[in-house]
Please model this.
Amino acid sequence: MIGGATGPITKVISERRSLRRHWRIAETIFMIVLDTLMILAACYLAYRLRFKTLLHNPMLEGLKYQIFGYYTAAAPDNNQQFSSYMPLWAGVIAGLIIIFAARRLYHIRLTGNWFRQAWLIATSTTIGMAFLITYFFFFQNTNQYDPDTLVPNSRLLIPFIWFTTVVVLCAGRLVISGGMGMLYRMGLGETRVLVVGSGRLGKMVMQCLTASPNLGFSVVGFLHDMTEPPGDFGRFKMLGTIDDIGVVIRSMQVDEVIIALPSHLNNHAIRSVRLCERLGASFKLIPDLYELNLSRIDMENIEGIPLLGIRQASLNTPQRIITRTIDIVISSLALIIGSPIYLCIALAIVFTSPGPIIYKQDRVGLNGKHFKMLKFRSMYKDADQRLAQLLSQNEAQGPIFKMREDPRVTPVGRFIRRTSLDEIPQLFNVLKGEMSLVGPRPPLPREVAQYEEWQKGRLAIKPGCSGLWQVRGRSNISFDEGVLMDIYYIENWSLRLYIQILLRTIPAILFSRGAY
Model:
């Protein structure tokens, strides 16, 4: 009965998927038409730069006279109109659209990886311009105007076309991605996703999808795979076991199923795939390759036999040098530029409550090494002694202590904690090399003593002032979910991810997401 295909619910799901298919077709047609218009606009911009801006520009002519001692002679193609090059514009547009389609640019989600889209646009445009250069080389090997040729020749026009096309298309994709992301955040056109699997792999998938609302995925919940005790995972609801997949797909009107099961449950994965096919649900399979990001996998081929290797997760020497340099430069600038504000905070702490300005606390860093972490004091000086009285009011899960209305926090402390200004002195820890700007937050020794073995993996990298946990919600996220984010960052470290977290820290601080 699970695979039944009748009833009002099935009809609603079928209509919903049909609408999504039509939307996808309309989206592709829209992007092709839009790319055509943007390429035409780029060609016009290239024409203006080549024949109107640069040709006989008084400033450029004066500079040329100063350098070479002569002015440019009148060019015979100076009076060529934009319409005279229409065969060239048509060829460029048709050629680029064909190359884009062949390289599957229109299969990439509009709100997906903009850098990947930009790279495809740049490389595809380069290929197109190479064909155009080849045409001019073999069929129009003169740069002089000839009224008998189909396309007026101007070799200097080619680099302008390449440049303007890349800039216009990349900028256009960025605007479209932002607009679609706003619609998705409003709940328009979102994709309802069900995750099959409650292990570490499934949890990472749910976190990544929820952390990027601009992708348009809404996680309705997950199915338990019986590898660990059943129950909800933080904000994600358990909707049943993997045997309930058919019922859940129909009752929750699921658009897409992501199957993230461990390797020993391959039979269940195959069954889930077949069930999705029978119900007409789209699905994605995530390979359980030691739960690693595919970017860490090296592949070799020996006589047709594929060999997979796993790159080490630790940072190599160049990466350490780069990140250390960024840490030192940004920390130094932040301390120097913000020094007047920090002085005001110090004075406010002194005049509102007795005790030291800087609070030093023993924390656990890289590979379990202890160090003194610095913070602006945000609590009364007897806060540590009063902790035992408040443990019963702990609002956080796991070994950490969190309390929204903590009576130990001073009035000034409440403000600087919400704005994260209390963390500023940790920049000195960064300069000393005890911390980095990005990494897992350094835990207390008593917290580490309660860690499960898998949670100790977050100590494998230098702790940071900010991290995935902080930019994705801070105190609004459960402890296990936050630790999983830290481990994901460690195992998938890249300079790009490091910089992304740095940039996302700014809005996280400004909007005080999960801070108290």
